[in-house]
Write a structure and sequence with these properties.
The protein is of the alpha/beta class and 302 residues long. It contains 10 helices and 13 strands. The strands form 2 sheets. Strands 12-11-7-10-9-8-13 form a 7-stranded mixed beta sheet, with helices on one face. Strands 3-2-1-4-5-6 form a 6-stranded parallel beta sheet, sandwiched between helices. It is globular.
Length: 302
Amino acid sequence: MRKPLKIGLIGLDTSHVEAFSRILNVESDPGHIPGGKVVAGFPGGSPDFDLSINRVEGYTSKLRDEFGVDILDTPQAVAERSDLVFINAVDGRVHRELFEKIVSYGRPTFIDKPFTVGAEDAETILALAKKQAVPVMSCSALRYADNFQEAIHAGDGRGAIVACDVCGPMDIRPPMPGLYWYGCHSVEMLVTAMGAGVKSVRAVSTETADLVTVEWSDGRVGSIRGLRGAHGTFGAVLHRKDAPTFVNASANQRPYYASLLEAILRSLPEGRSDIPAEEMITVIRILDAANESRRTGERVDV
């Protein structure tokens, strides 16, 4: 049996680091996933983002005291200590810089949502990863909600997905621009169902909601309804030729994070991403285009 992979976490300012450490390190946890153990972490934190800097100390202490994680002084020290690196910093603006600091170590890397804040940074990461032969994977855990994945891959004879409508909470949290803070989850679900090849995006925004329509090059159309001050449920309607399927992605008994960690551990250690690079960049391009459309009221070509 292979020894558990040593996993390092960079950016300890999100609940994800606690969830990942619990699922990986605590064998008695109901969602435990074998194969990896969190051994090192770098706190990080963005001084201009309260939801980052105000949470670093608490999560850093919890990882050190409850899960036995060694807290190190630099991202490079974490990469050196690890077999597999997770960039978890809640501030997507710093993901490119953090990846650039560790890419020379050659560690397979998972970058938590959002991949980046802007397509230019995402393209730079992917190009650098390819040049250095470092496998990179990024997504929202909503992609791997068990019932969502089951519905997408259902062998029920109803055929390919011809459209998809997604709903979910859409809080806005500066300095994250527009839909980047929470919209990334719903966009991830839409791209998971419909794939890459997006042609254009149009968004309508009010104080309480955003409605984003996305057109694909083959003529298919998907939508995202993001709500503020309403239910916090993530859901999707998958439309096939013969019938729709509704998925309440928030109703799974197993945590999204357990399913996500399974996907990471079955792919990155083998030198590949479980998600095509074009889908990862498509999520960011949709978010960029939706933010522009929110400002202008016009359709934005992708």
